[in-house]
């Protein structure tokens, strides 16, 4: 049923819990696969360049932030990490709709609380516009 | 990651995307170029000519396609006293000299020198810049009536809420148009761009700055040109790295340094003030879909075209609307993350950031702040790095475990050797180097001496936890000893 799962994750506690739910969904079907997608928006890019400097260092740091999420899935299910640049909502929607996922799992709130207060949460935008079922982890 | 073919470099994500992004950027550039001229104390036309010249020249010679350069707040703030004391012609001459220095910087491939500016100094730099831009706006409110406050508040309201309605037009432009419309319609007598000086009515023309070509002139402009060149490159290379990251592509930083130089030489001769890359505008550009050189060319030409066509309307833009835009610019320039996480970063990093910011706010000079920050971090670094901590735990009566924490090199080995108890009663000691790093021959020698001293007292030594580089260093030293026939 849920063979191809998109897990939106930024390394926050919310996204770690989302990973646990994604794993539960993955376990329903044999040979399922989870794509962990971390979206870097321009504000995050700016902050992280200021904080870490060079680009190869950035990639490492970004992978590092997702270790908590990876720990949940490691040795349980096949997964892959994708770090994508763009605005979180639209980028996630585009990716989900273009790649025939069976389900999208997102946390209700990520690391960027301020932004979700001003612009409304990414998860609601995703739920509205993605064609497949969306699971929002509260 | 590669820089791509000429066609890719120019067209990035396609002609349509580039042109549209260029237009959006042009619209967002106009209020900023005017506002930065006002900060520098020159006519708005100086900033507008600069934005035009720099954006067009950098489109051809820049090293980072997709990045937008123009008149900036950082540069404007550095020229205030020069303009006030010596006038515009000296500023133009300083701008040309800034460009020459930047070209030299690029020719000698010095962009890697920027690595020596620590991250916390960079953070301090952008935060100080944001504070100065904000403070510069407060001047407009001195003695102003309630309308000034009301219009600025209204402008900010539109800037932050209009994106909820539509994201295709820059909200700053919408704010400017709406506020200007209201002011013209109600005829309220608030001060406008027209009160601040002339706007261009022709394309910029090539002119040699009217200054005496003497050593005295050079002595006046050189310090300004040096600060402008350094700050311009600092902000440009920082912006280039952000664009690299956003577009997932690499760029030639030395070419960008030279490009910034050519652009400043050109803008100086065409009556514009020195400028550099703009973080905010580059982000707008990339978000609008651009990744090539074309968008910068379009942005420059559209900006000039609009000013020439709509000059009569531009002079009526109230300063209140521009103040709103500048307050937004300062809020988005500020690295808020650095304040929210200040308790989490090392205390020395936080101190460097705070010292950089306060130096700039007190001196109003970004380059002095950066210098102070760099010196302070160097001192902290030297103090931190030469400290080696050795702790020991007695495992039982016959064994002792030493844990070494720190960098072992010529400056720290003396303390390191002194940290052990050689006349111990135990039979075995373990030296755990998991948290240590050996850097040079002095470190290898020191470790050997520690071992020998223990062995002289019949204590067996086990060295554990050498990291890869350190153990390679030890092996190399051993090999060299053999080769040397010892």
TrEMBL record, chain A:
<dbReference type="InterPro" id="IPR006016">
    <property type="entry name" value="UspA"/>
</dbReference>
<dbReference type="InterPro" id="IPR006015">
    <property type="entry name" value="Universal_stress_UspA"/>
</dbReference>
<dbReference type="InterPro" id="IPR014729">
    <property type="entry name" value="Rossmann-like_a/b/a_fold"/>
</dbReference>
<dbReference type="Pfam" id="PF00582">
    <property type="entry name" value="Usp"/>
</dbReference>
<comment type="similarity">
    <text>Belongs to the universal stress protein A family.</text>
</comment>
<feature type="domain" description="UspA">
    <location>
        <begin position="1"/>
        <end position="138"/>
    </location>
</feature>
<protein>
    <submittedName>
        <fullName>Nucleotide-binding universal stress UspA family protein</fullName>
    </submittedName>
</protein>
UniProtKB/TrEMBL annotation, chain B:
<dbReference type="InterPro" id="IPR002645">
    <property type="entry name" value="STAS_dom"/>
</dbReference>
<feature type="transmembrane region" description="Helical">
    <location>
        <begin position="120"/>
        <end position="138"/>
    </location>
</feature>
<dbReference type="Pfam" id="PF01740">
    <property type="entry name" value="STAS"/>
</dbReference>
<feature type="transmembrane region" description="Helical">
    <location>
        <begin position="261"/>
        <end position="284"/>
    </location>
</feature>
<dbReference type="InterPro" id="IPR018045">
    <property type="entry name" value="S04_transporter_CS"/>
</dbReference>
<dbReference type="InterPro" id="IPR011547">
    <property type="entry name" value="SLC26A/SulP_dom"/>
</dbReference>
<feature type="transmembrane region" description="Helical">
    <location>
        <begin position="144"/>
        <end position="162"/>
    </location>
</feature>
<feature type="transmembrane region" description="Helical">
    <location>
        <begin position="290"/>
        <end position="310"/>
    </location>
</feature>
<feature type="transmembrane region" description="Helical">
    <location>
        <begin position="20"/>
        <end position="40"/>
    </location>
</feature>
<dbReference type="GO" id="GO:0008271">
    <property type="term" value="F:secondary active sulfate transmembrane transporter activity"/>
</dbReference>
<dbReference type="Pfam" id="PF00916">
    <property type="entry name" value="Sulfate_transp"/>
</dbReference>
<keyword id="KW-1133">Transmembrane helix</keyword>
<feature type="transmembrane region" description="Helical">
    <location>
        <begin position="218"/>
        <end position="240"/>
    </location>
</feature>
<feature type="transmembrane region" description="Helical">
    <location>
        <begin position="354"/>
        <end position="383"/>
    </location>
</feature>
<feature type="transmembrane region" description="Helical">
    <location>
        <begin position="46"/>
        <end position="62"/>
    </location>
</feature>
<keyword id="KW-0472">Membrane</keyword>
<feature type="transmembrane region" description="Helical">
    <location>
        <begin position="317"/>
        <end position="334"/>
    </location>
</feature>
<keyword id="KW-0812">Transmembrane</keyword>
<dbReference type="InterPro" id="IPR036513">
    <property type="entry name" value="STAS_dom_sf"/>
</dbReference>
<feature type="transmembrane region" description="Helical">
    <location>
        <begin position="90"/>
        <end position="108"/>
    </location>
</feature>
<dbReference type="InterPro" id="IPR052706">
    <property type="entry name" value="Membrane-Transporter-like"/>
</dbReference>
<feature type="transmembrane region" description="Helical">
    <location>
        <begin position="174"/>
        <end position="198"/>
    </location>
</feature>
